[in-house]
Amino acid sequence: MIIGVCEDDPAIRRLLAEALRFAGHETVMAHDGGEALRLFGADSGIDVMVVDIGLPDSDGRDVCQALRSAGQNAPVLFLTALGATHDRLAGFGAGGDDYVAKPFELKELIARLEALGRRGRPPLSTTAGLDLDPARHAARTPSGEVLLTPTEFRMLAAITSRPDEVVRRRTVIAAAWPEGAVVAENTVDSFMRRIRTKLESIGSPVSIETVRGVGFRIR
Amino acid sequence: MIIGVCEDDPAIRRLLAEALRFAGHETVMAHDGGEALRLFGADSGIDVMVVDIGLPDSDGRDVCQALRSAGQNAPVLFLTALGATHDRLAGFGAGGDDYVAKPFELKELIARLEALGRRGRPPLSTTAGLDLDPARHAARTPSGEVLLTPTEFRMLAAITSRPDEVVRRRTVIAAAWPEGAVVAENTVDSFMRRIRTKLESIGSPVSIETVRGVGFRIR
DNA sequence: GCCAGACAGTCAGGTGGCGTTCAGGAAGTG
DNA sequence: CACTTCCTGAACGCCACCTGACTGTCTGGC
């Protein structure tokens, strides 16, 4: 299992790295929210994430939401020093799947992570008859399957994560490119065309609709 | 099941020998690290190993790593007088699979050993028409057989363990090199080429596909 | 001690895939 | 009709990867 850990405290980071490796898992480490967004993308292959709520550059719950809108929907376990109920609930509200307070029992944390991971890697979106398979970098429909390049995959993931909703160009760019990247407006169109072509090539029943002046929507 | 035991204390050695034989297993005994290296090699047929961390001539964790790099990848259970968490973790980091503190409950130890043995090492798959033979470090297909070096074998095993899935470069590195090893990015490519060449040389029907920017996939 | 062979790892050069851009046309909007 | 936005096809260039050869280390045999 590949586990993404976002935690600023070096001691805890190292502890988790060793313990998880020991338990037979691979880890990807991030020490702040920005790095997490870069490393934990939809095509990162990550099965479960551990995110500290109190990060130096942002709130872990915001990080989680940003990842969600980038199409990443692996389960998230929040780490926090706070034990109050409303904080716990806020964590769940932000798309979290579990919650552990610091200081935590290592064994318990790992057990919970494995439980979350065992639920299986959810196909990113079976919505609208379109499956995204991060393990294979592929998009699948009842009628066939195509392989996508990393960027294509991230873009498509960002759109399919919100079926029937209009996803703004800006959002697509934020999901598919690292923060601060400068891309010509047109680049999105080019990729969109390639994705559409690939989907057509397998006779996909779903298509990407463009909402002029706003963005795109899956249908 | 054949169980290798490396332990300097004669009393514990005798205790384990009797108990394991009683439980229906065969044992191979070593008094120190040097002997363990000679007796527990990759071709020793040993299924599981019990290694004391506090050996007269060396640290059990070093012994374990030495055995690993000699191609021995049977599961290891560490025995130690230390109970502190960081020692436990260090044992895991050295390639251990389980850990029992002395004095131990005989029943529990045997149960854990049997669990390790049963789990086996990743049942190196017959997937996709490609057989991996850990004992001989060989890859076999309907059309022939080639011998692989230890590193080649570990890499190929990492890829074949997930047929049709993209295995990331860093996953391959994690599988083929000890933790913290620094290898040039290029090294993976070199080995990959050697593996592909060997597979071709026997006219293998399966081949390793590369997914640019992500990793490799068996096909 | 010396040599031969096997294996791990590195380096430099070439290639192609993928990300990116551009220009021209089509479609939507006022 | 003027203007904007998006589609379409083609082309470019970088970088990840491939490829072949080389170096260094270790082991076993004479």
UniProtKB/TrEMBL annotation, chains A, B:
Record-annotated OmpR/PhoB-type domain positions: 122-219
Q: Which residues form the Response regulatory domain?
A: 2-117
Q: Which residues cross the membrane?
A: none
Q: Does the keyword Phosphoprotein apply?
A: yes
Protein source organism = Nocardioides hankookensis
Kindly give the Gene3D superfamilies that the UniProt entry links to this protein: 3.40.50.2300, 6.10.250.690, Winged helix-like DNA-binding domain superfamily/Winged helix DNA-binding domain
Q: Which UniProt keywords apply?
A: DNA-binding, Phosphoprotein
* Modified positions (4-aspartylphosphate) in chain numbering: D52
Record flagged with keyword tRNA-binding:
no
Protein name, as recorded? Response regulator transcription factor
- Residues the UniProt record assigns to the DNA-binding region sit at 122-219
